[in-house]
Structure formats: C-alpha cells, structure tokens
Amino acid sequence: MKLALERLEADLSERLRPAYLVSGDEPLLVGEAVDAIRGAARARGFTERLVFPIERGNAVWEEVMGAAQALSLFAERRIVEVRLPSGKAGTAGAAALLRLLEVSGDDLLTLIVTARLDREVLSAAWVQRVQERGAWLPIWPVDRAHLPQWLRGRFARAGLTASPEALELLAERSEGNLLAARQEIDKLALLLPRGARVELPDVMAGSSDSARFDVFQLGAAVRAGEAARALRILESLHAEGGEAVLVLWALLREVRAAPLPAARASRLRLLRRAVRADRMIKGLLEGDPWDELAALASEASGGASLPLLRAAVA
Questions:
Q1: Are 264 and 302 contacting, i.e. CB atoms less than 8 angstroms apart?
Q2: Measured distance CA(276)–CA(1) in Å, rounded
Q3: CB-side exposure of 294: number of CA atoms within 13 Å?
Q4: 32-56: pLDDT as tens digits
Q5: Where are the domains of the chain?
Q6: 183-228: per-residue pLDDT in tens?
Q7: Which CATH architecture has domain 5-139?
C-alpha cells in the first residue's frame, strides 16, 4: 500500500508490515520515518539490524540475500536495511530485492531507503511488490506555503506555541532546511518553560538565516512575479557556491515561457541580458555574471530595470 507520512505512527501502532520502502529528498523527514519504523520493530523483538549501503557499481546483493537467509545466533528477528540512494537497483539488484521481499515476514523485516523515485523506478516490479507486501512512504519536502503550519505542529510537539509572526520569520529563515528549523525549535524548548508562547523577538535573537534554495524555486519566484524573493534566492545560491550556468538555465526557461506579464521587461531585452550573462560566465565579456543574473532575475520578475551597459570584451 501507499502510506502517507501523517499516517505512519498510527499504522505502526496497529501492525508491523513485512516490508517498507521510504523514499524522498528531505533528510529530516526520511530519517524520522525510518527511525519510527526501526523503533516499532525493536518493540516487537527485532533486535538485530543489518545495513547494506548500495552505491553505484557496488555488487553486494549476494551479501544482502545471505544476511536475510542466515540464522542469527543472538536474535530470532532481524531487520535488513538496504540503502539505495539512486533508487535504481539494476537487474541483479531487482532480482535480489524481489527475493528478499518474498522471505520477509514474522522474523525478517525489509526496510529500503531511497531518494525520490522517478517514473521508471516506480514501475519496477520490486517497488510494486513492496506495496503488495508492505508499505511505500513517499516523502515530499514541505513547500514554503505550508511551512508555517508544519512549524506550528513541531512547536506543539515540543510543548510550545508560537505567534504567527514568529512562525513566519522562522519559515523564512529555514526554508529548504527543516533540520535547521528543528534545531531552533529544540533550542527554544530548552530555553523556555513548557507551554510558553514563542514570540518574534525569541526567533530573532536565536536563529540565523539557514534557508536553502534550488534553481527551481528561483524559477517559481520569477514566474510568480516575486522580485524580492527571486533576488534572495539568487543571493543564497551564490553564497552556497551554486553554478551560474544552472541559474541562467532556470531564468532562461522562465523568460522563454509565454506569455510574460505586460509589467515585465520585453522578452527581447531579457534575452539580451541573458546573452550578456552567458558571455560573462564564459569569460568572453568583462563583468560579474552574478550581477547580470541578478538584473535578469529582477527584470523577469517585474522588478526594477537596469540599463544594458556596454561592456568590454575580455
């Protein structure tokens, strides 16, 4: 079956399934889900755990099967945990996982942990078999619109409440970095009495800007006409050592999308700005490409326009 993360705790309290597949790109939520499954298994007598990280080109599938079938001298029940970062098992791996799933049951729990699965992997026989025998938990990042609500729930779990202003600031400072948000909430729970209300000054005093972004969020901000947010994301990508060429790709994708709102710069002007940024990235034109990318992001979002200054060829 396909199991929502919100239902995991209740489902584990009712039963322990023979197999679980946890997939997703949000480390905190994936880790917490896996910990919950392990904890439920330990409570039911699964005291031995064997972990097999499967890297690209790593042929350990025979070891996985051997560990699953071998009798333990110290524990009757065991967890076989397969960590498959790409989600792609290959022919040998798929066969081993199918066999592993068949022998899972009262004395063997199979736990497979992967990154987000693409369509090709989702159609694989072993993924389908996990859902027949156990549960698949697809875990998604918490988007910006729902982050304050998620934070409110985490504060409640820590025995605290928070004002809307405090939630909004913490959401802004921790977007894309749920681990930083959890650490901040844990710290506040230590500093404040249980049941206390977290206010804006509490967050301002204790947290720093730990938000993390990607080029897709930059494109979404441009598409929504949010110039200030687009520039903040761009600044974060630059500070984290992002690739200027990927940023340019994301911005060009939005520039080429039709139609552009009338309030924004003309498409021809934006394309000229993009050409300048590309030439700067390649070292064919003097200037900082990130400055040009910032101007492109601002104008494409409907923000302030800057003159297309003449630059010398490098």
A1: yes
A2: 51
A3: 15
A4: 999 999 999 999 999 888 899 887 5
A5: 5-139, 144-206, 215-300
A6: 899 989 988 899 999 998 888 876 666 677 888 889 888 988 888 8
A7: 3-Layer(aba) Sandwich (3.40)
